[in-house]
Design the sequence.
């Protein structure tokens, strides 16, 4: 992820991350892009606030949603970071879920078309097993996606 692109930052409108300013990190930037570029060029900058007076406050930390405070004129932008473990577990579980559900449905339809679903318990057993495990992994994926979204603020699934 190219953290120097403003579009990659996580935006929280009307907010501030109080008491986290970098020493000397107040910039009177003409544009928000200049503020993002200043944050990108400083390795200690993890986020910034850009306000309606076009003042840029470089921050040494990212505040969680609960730590951020209301600021009528402020907009917080957090640098993107590598995906969390919860994200990777969610992605793996949901992909595995699809890999189990789709063949399960295919086997069931194939067996039904051949007229083997009633006479052969094997097709039905395979189908139900794949559907059950697919549902379990889908549920695990949804749970970990929720954890990732709530703790880390990831709003776009699997970007």
Sequence:
């Amino acid at each position: 992820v190219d953290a120097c692109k403003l579009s990659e930052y996580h935006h929280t409108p009307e907010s501030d991350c109080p008491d986290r300013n970098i020493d000397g990190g107040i910039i009177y930037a003409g544009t928000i892009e200049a503020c993002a570029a200043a944050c990108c060029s400083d390795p200690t900058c993890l986020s910034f606030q850009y306000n309606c007076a076009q003042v840029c406050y470089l921050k040494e930390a990212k505040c969680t949603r609960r730590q951020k405070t209301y600021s009528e004129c402020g907009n917080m932008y957090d640098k993107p970071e590598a995906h969390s473990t919860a994200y990777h577990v969610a992605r793996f579980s949901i992909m595995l879920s699809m890999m189990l559900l789709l063949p399960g449905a295919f086997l069931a339809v194939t067996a039904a078309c051949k007229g083997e679903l009633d006479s052969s318990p094997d097709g039905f057993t395979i189908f139900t097993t794949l559907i059950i495990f697919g549902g379990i992994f889908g549920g695990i994926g949804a749970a970990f996606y929720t954890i990732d979204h709530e703790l880390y603020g990831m709003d776009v699934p699997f970007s």
In short: The CA atoms of residues 50 and 56 lie 5 Å apart. The mean pLDDT is 78. Strands lie at 10-16, 21-27, 47-51, 56-59, 69-78.
